[in-house]
Amino acid sequence: xxxxxxxxxxxxxxxxxxxxxxxxxxxxxxxxxxxxxxxxxxxxxxxxxxxxxxxxxxxxxxxxxxxxxxxxxxxxxxxxxxxxxxxxxxxxxxxxxxxxxxxxxxxxxxxxxxxxxxxxxxxxxxxxxxxxxxxxxxxxxxxxxxxxxxxxxxxxxxxxxxxxxxxxxxxxxxxxxxxxxxxxxxxxxxxxxxxxxxxxxxxxxxxxxxxxxxxxxxxxxxxxxxxxxxxxxxxxxxxxxxxxxxxxxxxxxxxxxxxxxxxxxxxxxxxxxxxxxxxxxxxxxxxxx
Length: 289
Fold this sequence. Notes:
289 residues, alpha/beta, TIM Barrel, 8-stranded parallel β-barrel, two-stranded antiparallel sheet, 14 helices
């Protein structure tokens, strides 16, 4: 199963790090942009980031919006990035947060996970429309041996406006969590997790602990680490026996050079930042050797 491959990469490389590939043109070193189109600069930047870190990370997470803004050329750069990351042996999480119903949801699922897609292993999904909006993604993921990360308790500050509202005696995020756990119950992999994962922010450690207990068979994607204020201690609540989650860092890794100086060495700074992140989570492996 899809998450089994990710878990095996985590164990082999002793890392839970996911690099978010969210390139902004204005933040890419100038020498990369020189003589290149915007889309080509995005890909060249991503290629260097993957080259310098593939042995140290479990996965990459390209955010589709940063490519879509450049039209079909940007989409082409995204597809090239996904294929290059796969060639480097990385698990690829496409962060697109798609959500719709019926034939539209089926089309989104096919576009991003189907046999004619660029080959991402997983996609983020918005469950606001209920099971009608999620089932087409589950069906395609099962058919193609892919996976989903479904939004449950997101890392942004205003998530509480909807997600923390009480619906009866439970919060909305808890109701969504229970649905996600149930949607994946019939499809558990070798390592004990279903193909329906959950997005839960490191910025809410109390909720992380609550949801880890409530979702024993759900694999977590943890945003909010680093630049958003989440720490390795906060993210620790996502794990059970050192397993069960990956942790994303975007700006803190891909733009590490911006606080260091020489943009010509941006990939060296990124590699150093990944090593620092791995050291922060080394306790997961040291305690479960």
